[in-house]
Every structure is written in C-alpha cells, then in structure tokens.
C-alpha cells in the first residue's frame, strides 16, 4: 500500500505548476502528486510530463478535453485507488490552498474518514477577498448547510483528505456534479453514511497568477444541485447500504 497522493487538476496552469508541485513535495515526504490535465492549450500537460521525468514522486494523467472540475477529480481518484494509495488529497494548483497545511490534513486523517480544510472554523480564514466574494462564499456554505441539514462549516471548500476506504464507499460512479457543487456532494455523501468528517483550519488566498475558473453557470449549478442532493439522499443510501 502506498501512502498519500495529492490529486491536482490543471487547466492552463503552466505558470503555477513548477512552483506548486515543488511546494507540495517539500511539505511532506509522505506525499506524491498526480497532475490531472485537461488538455490545456497553454502546454501545462507537456510541462507536467517534463516534471514527472525529473521527479519520480510526480505522475501525470492526461484527459482529452475539459469536462469540469468534478470529472477531473473523479478520474484522479480512480487512478489513486487503482494504484493503492492509503490517503488521497485534493487541492487547487494556483496556491489558493497553501501546501504547508498538507501535513495537518494528513495527521487529522489518522482519526477521521474525511478531513476538510476549513475557512470557517476558528483559526481559518481568507486573504485578499472583497466583501462580495466573502458574501458569496459564506452565503453558499450557509445555504448548503441549511438545505442539507448538516453542521459542517465549510461545505464548498476543495482542500480535502480522504481515506481510500471513504472514497470506496462514496459510490463515485454515480456522482452527478461537475463543477463547484462536486465538493458539496462528496462531503454530503460521507456525512449521510455516518462517516467521521472533521474540519481543520486553513487560510485561503487568491490565486497568485492566472484566471479563476469560477463562473456564474458553475455557481447556479451548485445551487440547484444542493436541492437534488437532499432529494436523492434515500436513493444513495439504498445503493450504498444494499437496502
């Protein structure tokens, strides 16, 4: 059994990739990286191949086209499970998730099924955000918590650590979300199964370079998906529990 793998989706992240992969590997010698590139036109995939040639802890999964963050993560999770990693982490490639938090997430996974890097627990926060962006983010988490009836403070965050057994139980083949709501859906599935989900504080910063992938379409997809998740909860539990 291998130890820990960071799944790192990329689309036009050539400016960030060398620095973020180095920072991740420096954060913990337990960690390897899988770059999941969606055929980036800026050459991110070719750059990832060059980095992997020079560094055995870096691996690359090439996808033919951009299909949304959720599809990229699911492909990476499938690769991680097939290659027998005990812990699978996810994070952004743009330094909005600080790699120095990785050991904290891994440590917490020693007594939890899913660890969330949380902006909205004591000690967590955001940097360089305007009032509108804070309102949208916090409001989105509040809306999802209220509709789904859960106590997790940061349902929309994308800095996580899963035990492999957790991913194996989440019925990944039936995950419906493609964008922003993907994060909500996986966490809600874990909570619905009664798995232990814990939050550890992180500080989230704006990306250093490049353009945000968030869009109005992704935001409204997430709002609608939250309602569907609540309605689909019983069907999900029947599938996963065989009842």
Can you describe this structure?
It is a single chain. The chain is 43% helix and 19% strand. The chain is α/β, with parallel strands linked by helices. It has one domain: Spore Coat Polysaccharide Biosynthesis Protein SpsA, Chain A, CATH 3.90.550. It has a seven-stranded mixed sheet with strand order 3-2-1-4-7-5-8, with helices on both faces. It has a two-stranded parallel ribbon with strand order 6-9. β1, α1 (17-27) and β2 form a beta-alpha-beta unit. α5 (131-148) packs parallel to α8 (216-241).
The CATH class assignment is Alpha Beta
Largest sheet: 7 strands, mixed
Category by helix and strand content: alpha/beta
Number of strands: 9
CATH architecture: Alpha-Beta Complex
Number of helical regions: 8
Strand sequence of the main sheet, in spatial order?
3-2-1-4-7-5-8
Unreliable runs, pLDDT <50, ≥5 residues? none
String of helices and strands: EHEHEHEHEEHEHHEEH
Q: What's the helical proportion of residues?
A: 40-55%
CATH 4th-level superfamily: Spore Coat Polysaccharide Biosynthesis Protein SpsA, Chain A
Number of domains: 1
- Range of strand content: 15-25%
Cα separation of the termini: 31 Å
In CATH, the topology is named Spore Coat Polysaccharide Biosynthesis Protein SpsA, Chain A
Shape: globular
What is the gyration radius calculated from CA atoms?
Answer: 17 Å
> What's the mean pLDDT score?
90
